[in-house]
Write a structure and sequence with these properties.
It is a single chain. The chain is mostly helical. It has a domain at about 105-195. The chain has helices at about 35-50, 55-70, 70-100, 145-150, 165-195, and strands at about 5, 15, 120-125, 155. A two-stranded antiparallel ribbon has the order 1-2. A hairpin with a 6-residue loop joins strand 1 (about 5) and strand 2. Helix 2 (about 55-70) crosses helix 3 and helix 3 (about 70-100) packs parallel to helix 4. Bound molecules: zinc ion (3 copies). One zinc ion binds near residues 13, 33, 34, 36 and 37.
Amino acid sequence: MGTEHKTCSRCGEAKPRSAFTRHAQKSDGLRPECRECRSAGRKESDAKYRSTDLAKQTRRRWHKHRYETDEGYREKVRARSRAGALRRRQRNLSIIELEAARRGNRCEICGVGPFQRGGEFSWHHRWGEGKSYDIGRTTTHSEARLRAELARCALVCNKPTADGVSCHTLMHRRMRAFAAERQLEERAVAARGSRV
Ligand SMILES: [Zn+2]
Ligand SMILES: [Zn+2]
Ligand SMILES: [Zn+2]
């Protein structure tokens, strides 16, 4: 065993002295683990630290502080979020257009077409399926959520036809009538219950 080589305490390989970093307090003046193992170990512990809540809080605080005090940073963050919103919007509009095309680009009730985004057509949430969000707000929706929401909607015309009412209006009238009918039924059941 000469002074030329040293065995790494981590990987167990014998390596030249130059493969180790200096450490004044050690008898041979070198760290026990080789440079390679040292950097691998550091990466591991860095990754472990980054995933802790403390690290996340620190990052959030730092981000907030920088956002409030550094105008260049603020502008950069805003530009990035604008770009993201624009990208999402373009993607979502094309998903909506493809879905309309899949349904023949026409009103599902009266067949009026072709579909054009905004104005003449609506994505109507069928009854009982509830509306969890507005399809028109295309800058925020994720692809999965938008697709799920479209699946729950009927594509209907929104412009009054010859008889002065659009199919969308009629669908809402039917929903209101349905709700009123349910209310009447519930009243009747409650009345029967109180008589017992
Ligand atoms: Zn090593
Ligand atoms: Zn229609
Ligand atoms: Zn509707």
